[in-house]
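ESCALATION

Customer reports they have been waiting on this structure for their group meeting. Please prioritize. Original submission:
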Amino acid sequence: MKNYEQYKRIVKFIFSVMILSVEMAVFWYIWLQFYNQKMETPYNRSGHWLMVAVYGILLVLFNTLYGGLKVGYLKTWNMIYSQTLALFSANAMIYLQITLLTKCFQSMLPLFAMCIFEFLVICIWSFVSTRIYRFLYPPRKVLLIYGEHPVASLMCKLHTRNDRFVVGEIVHISAGMKVIEDKIGKYQGVVICDLPSHVRNVILKYCYKKSIRTYTTPKISDILVRSSESLHLFDTPLLLSRNNGLPFEQRVAKRVMDLALSFTALILLSPVFLITAVSIKLYDKGPVFYFQERCTKDGKVFRICKFRSMVEDAEKEGQSIPATEADPRITPIGRIIRGTRIDELPQIFNILKGDMSIVGPRPERVEHVELYTKQIPEFVYRMKVRGGLTGYAQVYGKYNTTAYDKLKLDLMYIQNYSLMLDVGIIFKTVKVLFMKESTEGFSEESSAAMENETTL
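Update from on-call: job pushed to the front of the queue and completed.
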């Protein structure tokens, strides 16, 4: 693996160029044969090059958003899924361009046939490129170093990616640095799992000296420092962390985008609102909407609005009972709208009101905030911005990701905020909507544990 390590980026680039070139070549043929002659003044050679270039840019843009070109990073089926989303998005945009150029709606059949052919090419490319990549770069054999915190959860996660990691051995810091240093030399990487800072720093410096890569689970302080600004006022460097959440200009821009997108979504999705409301009402004659108290910026409590997906009085006496995967309280209509996230759409009203934003940390229930804050005092940090309909933790985590890991993800969003990050999260939300692992409920065991905790 060491012989090819320096060429890893080049290998990935070659794979990306291959699939993009094939897709662009297919579009070239479809454009010439079916659409160019429909224009009042057909393009010549330079015009054809321009159309193909635009299509290529769209493919690169959407593949970047959905991660479709991350060979070796994503699993094969995830890469096919990401590539397919990027393909349909690019084809939808190019069809709009074709419509503008020809000044009327053209038949979509050629583009539909192109989609099918490109999908087959994507499947073949994904399997072949993944196999070649894994042959050139087999899983790294790593040493896992841990401290006082349990590592069972992290071990389970590492085992799900045995295409990238093989944990050869685990060692506790109590073994001593001499033993740890001897073991490090036998492996291709080191996983550092939540160690005390003074011990972690010694290990990081040792691995840096020996050119051994490290994988470190970040602490809250790491995330805060990572987003700091470098100052060179004198010959000792300073790192500035403003710690005020979003600055004024970012808050204004974010609010403008929230209002514009929410009004647009409300108009476009009005048929979905109507059909869902009628379906819920006809099923059991109960209320259409469900309201629940949640916490948002600065701990402000508001009533979040959702389509009701459970039977009435699903939580007796207001007691929090998280939904499990086969929860009998969920109605047949509820299963559909929960699986497709339609039940979340009425939160558009909360966004328009100003209680929420489109993108931000998910607003938690009041009792959960109180519970999590007792266990994790830093949990309140995520309320430096408004809660969101979707967020960084929703895109990169799961529904049942631990509160501590969600906090880290939310802080990474807050500390690295930009409008482009919001746009990227919105597009990636489309990707995770239909991924089972992102919509699965709490297991019955974790649900029961949380119920017991919140009633203490």
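Sent to customer with the following note: Residues 8-35 form the longest helix (28 residues).
Escalation resolved.
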